Amino acid sequence: MSHLFLVLALLVAGSSPAAGLPRDPEAYFFNTTFWDFSEELQAARSAGKKGILIMFEMDECPFCHRMKTTVLNQPDVQDFFREHFLIFPVDIEGDVEIVDFNGNTTTMKDFAFRQYRVRATPVFAFFDLDGNIIKQARFTGATRDKEEFLLLGKYVVDEVYKHESFTRYKRTVR
Question: Is-contact 164 143, C-beta < 8 A?
Fold first, then answer.
């Protein structure tokens, strides 16, 4: 009887993901989308989110890869950001047609470069529920570690950006 219980316990433990193990950011960090950001704003409002987070990226970017394999794949990062934001990747070289926050049709690369002047990647851009970029929270490059990325998220969620720079916030919190 005790052997049966042990075998069942091991089977159950083996079938569920271990807490804290890295998870695929494509499945657990980013949300799925039909690339209509005007509709995504409505979805974010309806879901009680703080806004939308866009990761501007490109395929051959080593810093994007580093973020995905060391920070965005962490369950606590994924859970925190998914709780507060809808999150989408945008390829700054992409020709995929999207609808911007104002309902205008464009391509990913024009959305990135012409509307938001993204030249280097990654860029993490937070947008409020009206589709306005939160300029104080725009972060270019890879964060030092997951703690810094979580601080960036908390900086936006707690609306600290309204009265303090992220650099100053990091100094007072760490």
Answer: no
Judged by DSSP in three states, 53 sits in strand
CA angle 104, 108, 110 (to 5 degrees): 70
**pLDDT one-digit tens code per residue, 100-133:** 999 999 999 999 999 999 999 999 999 999 999 9
| Cα separation, 166 vs 21, whole angstroms | 29
d(CA 7, CA 71): 34
Q: What single-letter DSSP state applies at residue 69?
A: H
Largest CA-CA distance found in the chain, in angstroms, rounded: 68
Q: Are 168 and 136 in contact (CB under 8 A)?
A: no
* Strand (E) or helix (H) holding 85: strand 85-91
pTM for the full predicted model: 0.88
Ramachandran class of 35: left when φ > 0, alpha when ψ lies in -120 to 50, beta otherwise: left
| Alpha carbons 69 and 83: distance in angstroms, whole number | 21
pLDDT (tens digit per residue) in 66-108:
999 999 999 999 999 999 999 999 999 999 999 999 999 999 9
